[in-house]
Amino acid sequence: MNRQCRIWLPKLLSSSDDSTTHNSLLFGWFVSHHSSSCLDVVVAFITDETSLSGSSLQEVLNETNEKMPLSLRNKAAFTLLGRYDTCLGANGNALKNVTDEDLYSKVESNDGLLEDLRKDSVSSYWIHMVNDSSSEHGIRMHHIHWNGDIVSQCDVHVIVYETPVFGSHHFSLSFWNASPQIKAPLKKPNWVGDLHKRQPLIEMETVILSMNCAASAELTYKKLSTYLETSSRKFSVSYLMSTCVWWLLATLISSLSSLYYSLIKLFNVLSSFSIFSWVRIASRRLLKNTWINFRIRSCQILYWPIFLQENDTRSISCVEDAEKAARHRHSTWSAMAVDLVLGNMIGLALMSNTGDVCSWLFHFTKEFTNDILRSGCVWLMGVPAGFKLNTELAGVLGMVSLNVIQIWSTLWIFIASFIFYLIKAIAVMGITFGATVSAAFVIDVITFATLHITALHWAITLVYSHQIQALAALWRLFRGRKMNPLRQRLDSYGYTVKQHVVGSLLFTPLLLLLPTTSVFYIFFTITSTTINSICMFIEFAISIIHATPYAEIMIWLVRRRRFPSGVWFEIENYRKNIHNSSSDPLMVSNLRSNFLSIGQILLPHYTTMFSGISASSLTTSARGVLSGNRMPSKLGLDLPPPRPWMHLPLRQYWILCHGSIISSSEKGSNHDLSHRSGQTS
């Protein structure tokens, strides 16, 4: 069987000139397969062979390999791959017609250091590549040591890739936010099991992981081997200005966060006193939504410096993991920043137009009470839409509704003087804690202001549901059926004559009174559902603000390459005649990436938000309305989970915020440093 070798080559190495590739060493990973005829060679970088002594090679390789992810170390070890030479003639020009035997004798006659390094290498492979201008792409493999055999003729596929760098791009085989399938079929076909038993031809996951770690491996190796002088920040005016700007920014943000922290801590201390305990209990019951969103915002303010300082060991070496960790760190502060910006916009608009908002609320409340509630009840007491209702029952239900509406309107006359301060409070909450807290407070205010409608709807629902249940039970009596609650089914049952007579006497008036009860139930159900829909819409807006990944959207708009989704190969050179004496590669390809669209980025977040809502729950709610059950007043959307309270002194919290911003700037500088190192190598 003909052996197959895939060489994953960095783009900088494939496009380098002859002077930079003369007598150089290749470092990277050998990814072997279950089939002994296939091998993947992932080249991370190239160095000069004169810069490293054979005695320190194994120590440098071990220390560099320790910095790699554990999943990569379990499948492939970072090692010395081989050497990379330039074929030069006596006059300095590239040789065009050099046989494999001549070239092999030429390279083996060089320093004996390469042979010692190859023997010291823990890998059973060794590759020798040359940069030959006679080749169409300029790169070809001379020979490879393959488990003790020297192989010079095999199917070679050179794949050129651009080295992944944090903040620039990386490679990925799947979606970042792809969730596994929850449900699986009960029985799978036999061919599915056989397909899973087969080993993949290419260990793509290991190859992609090694390419994502190439830049970190190069930077770590050069620091350990002291091949290149360790890059350091040079004292300059630009560096001094950058440091001053970061220090001022850290001081400003830390002071604002400390101010928020002091306000939250003061509020928490005051609410712990027994004098204010009843106020706290009452406010939690009346302002339930406000408390939930206030706790979420408080936790975000408390924990954002900790989120910013979170650093995973694997994220240092793997670019894909570094991108995920950075996205997780940025999600908290970006959501808080957008929420505060929206809250300030709404709050400032309310502060500048408080009088107009108050007059509009008074007008709307008056029109809603008089033109909808009172007029609707009076209309239902007559002949609504031509239906002949029971006058006595309609009069009782209408008078009770009008009295409740009048009592609540009288109470709101005394509360109306506080509307101005209520709007000011909503504006201040939006400016201070963001739009979600003020919007949640608006939901609680609407719920409290429409408490009389909720009470009337609950009362008429109770009457209507019991009437429906009684009619259903009497109808089963006439059919000779009885409900079995244990088996949830209808069983046959023999009723007596007296039971049938009593049932007939009860069934007739209940059936004749049903239209009167139904019209009142429909009226208050529509009114209550409209109010609940407004509250649900505000709740939906709050969940959208919390769930939207603002940091990912901003990064996607600036650099879409940081969101890869699968890879594909762009064939650049292909030779069909594999029996040709030339050792040019059989195929040369460029590794390309697909990228996520904005919808694919947002969909997983919104799917998680709507995880508590299903079509069956909506169908159940719709059926419940017909049988007299109340509609839910909340959607039950997913919100960020609250975290435990944190108790820190104010000074220590300021130092924590300041240090997190400074450390974040240093991490960004280190990533930029690795980026420049990868470009200049």
From TrEMBL:
Pfam family, one: Gpi1
Keyword hit for Membrane: yes
Keyword check for Zinc: no
TM annotation in the entry: 235-253, 259-279, 333-351, 405-423, 430-449, 455-478, 499-524, 536-558
Keywords assigned by UniProt, alphabetized: Membrane, Transmembrane, Transmembrane helix
Protein name: N-acetylglucosaminyl transferase component
Organism encoding this protein: Eruca vesicaria subsp. sativa (Garden rocket)
Lineage, broadest ranks: Eukaryota, Viridiplantae, Streptophyta, Embryophyta, Tracheophyta
